[in-house]
Amino acid sequence: MNGSVGIVSVERISLQWEVEQFLYYEAALLDARRFDEWLQLLADDIHYWMPLRFNRDRRDEASDTSAPDEVSLFDDDKAFLEARIRRLKTGKAWAEDPPSRTRHLITNVVIEPANAPQNADFAVHSNFIVYRNRMEGEVDLYAGSRDDLIRRTAGGFQIASRTIMLDQNVLLSKNLSILF
Predict the structure, then answer these.
(1) For residue 78, what is the enclosing H or E element?
(2) Which residues in the chain show pLDDT less than 70?
(3) Overall domain count for the chain
C-alpha cells in the first residue's frame, strides 16, 4: 500500500466497487454456509494461510508472526479446503454440529496492482471482524486483516492467495473450524 490517493479515475472507482462487491459476496456465502459456491471463488492454485501471532518487544516487533515454513493456524491449498468442506457435509464434524452462525464484516479495502506477470492480478488488503456463535454460550469474535491476491478471470474474480492476520495471539475459542 503506497498510501497515495492522487487522481482517481472512473476505471479505478469501478475496480474498487467490483472488488468490494466480490468480497461482500464471498462473506455472504460464508455466512450462509454455501461452501460449495465459496470454493468456486478460489483459484486452483490458492494458498490460504493464517500464521501464528506472537507478543514481542518493540525491538523484535518485525518477527511477530510465524514464517511460511513454521507452524501456522491454516496453511491450506484448494484440495485441503475442499476436504474440509466435504467433512463439514458428513455430519461428523463435531466442532460444527450444530453449525456455527457467523457474520463476516469486511472493511477498509485497499487495492494495488500486484507484482505479478499478469496485469489481471490485484493485491487487496482488507480488515475484518468475524462474529461466531455456536450452541447457547459459545461466542467468538475475531478481528484482523487479510492480504489477498485477487485474479480477474473470464468467469469473474478468483482468490489466488489469502494471508489472514488475526490481531489476537491467544485464541480462546474451543475450535477454529470457520473460514475467513
Answers:
(1) helix 78-89
(2) 1-6, 56-57, 59-62, 114-119
(3) 1
